[in-house]
UniProtKB/TrEMBL annotation:
InterPro entries in alphabetical order: Tobamovirus_resist_UPF0261, UPF0261, UPF0261_C, UPF0261_N
Organism superkingdom: Bacteria
Taxonomic classification: Bacteria, Bacillati, Bacillota, Negativicutes, Selenomonadales
CDD domains per the UniProt record, alphabetical: Tm-1-like
Name this polypeptide is given: Uncharacterized protein, UPF0261 family
Organism per entry: Sporolituus thermophilus DSM 23256
Pfam families hit by this protein: UPF0261, UPF0261_C
Domain UPF0261: 3-176, 184-400
Amino acid sequence: MDKSVLILGTLDTKGHEFKYLKDIIESTGVKTLVINAGIKGAPVFTPDISSAEVARAGGMELSELIARDDRGLAIDVMMKGAVNVVTGLYRQGKVAGIISLGGTAGTTIGTAAMQALPVGVPKVMVSTVASGDTRPYVGFKDITMMHSVVDISGINSLSRQILANAAFAVAGMAKGVVPPAKEKPLLGATMFGVTTPCVTKVREFFEARGYEVLVFHATGTGGRAMEGLIKDGYIKGVLDITTTEWADELVGGILNAGPERLEAAGKAGIPQVVSVGALDMVNFGPRDTVPAKFKHRKFYQHNPTVTLMRTTVEECARLGEIIAEKLNQTTGPTALFLPLKGVSLLDVEGKPFYGPEEDAALFAKLRENIDRGKVELIELDTHINDESFALAMAQKMLSMLEANK
């Protein structure tokens, strides 16, 4: 194997632990390349890339960083440097995988570098914070977080087994070979439980025609993951049926995907068919976690841990403006589909979020603000989960893909 598993970490404080990882990985026949992200103190063993090189790659000389004696600044510089060093090694074809270990600082540095690598590159992070909220560390990448159980402070009867497991895991992933699959064009689609019938029909339509459809659960992480894969060039067309993450972004729900949601496909110039799935709802956790300012709103208890809140006329109007603004930035073929009889399984006559006025406000602002020279607006007198609506979107995407060949 010409490539190496990168071992990234602070060799000044955890040198013995990293040397242990290095020895185990190399005992399997896998080469390693050690990157020191430590600041103070001499490393226990000599790394392949020094902390001075990492600091320089992060925009500052190590001597200056030491003189400043600012822990926050040091973490930021070494994190940026690690990202630059690791991505540079990847571009040179030298990366078979990456492993790191640490507490909050080490995890921040290690996972920042891992997030900069493409999906599919083996990534293992042994961390003291792996049992909590790992979203800031994992992002939308395929990072394996392993809880260290004990603090990473020496090799003891427990840590030696946990660290060995991590070392064998990354070595096994690096050595593993997946037989090449038959190349299929990749499409992205967004789905929620309340838009499942529509997205399922679309997925089946394309799978029957030889396409592979990656369905992303529109829970914030899902939207980020899809847009990240678009930026990385994996996805050739987007069926962004469920844009509900923007409702959470606007109103303050827990499943937002950030203010750049709905931009990646347009910037990449790939075909996109977009709809307004589940914009009737904002997501919160258990009912007692809903902010008090919303106490007079309309709610639906989806399950004990998920509380849904109906978007208002004013919020829907603003969502229409935002989505139009995002789609108007497109550089590729784009179509926006409006289902005039409802945007989710709950937005149906007799169901909890049925809201003709709210939907009308959403549709009106979209009509008013969409740039018809860039975005084709298609309105159908159907519900979003009607088969005819799903097939209309699928056919439109297919025609875009064929015209884009």
